[in-house]
Predict the 3D structure of the following.
Amino acid sequence: DPWLLAVVLFVGYAVVSVGRYRHLGQRSWDLGIFEQVIRSYAHLQAPVADLKGPGFNILGDHFSPVTVLLAPVYRVFPSSITLLVAQAALFALSAVPVTRAAARLLGRRSGLAIGVAYGLSWGLQQAVDFDFHEICFAVPLIAFSLEALLSRRWRPALLWALPLVLVKEDLGLTL
């Protein structure tokens, strides 16, 4: 159930994100900034975002080196759409631990209902309906960490949460 739900959510999230992109519905500079940064990474260069200023190294603004993980995929599919699809996948992936934890605690049907409610929640809908943002990496990390915490698996909880410091400079506090 959790993985099937994640696939359905991924398709829905990707349709919304790519549809908005194709209709020129971007709401900020973030997609362009991160596209430039990930393009730089994909070509083994410093993460520069010229949209923020000529030669502007993004690590001096937001410390989010985790975005380098998208570079190999971007190298094969060099498009802003790649970032939006990756973001949709990461957000959808976060439904897996939420659904599993709820099913373990409340039963299969209730767990699936909570997973659906989570996947369709206002917060995730707003995140999907926005341009790409590095926070998409934090959402599944936090979800997997919290699933481990609920199971009193302290080490996996910590290991899932540790990479948060590579997502954005202020997520160390969340850790």
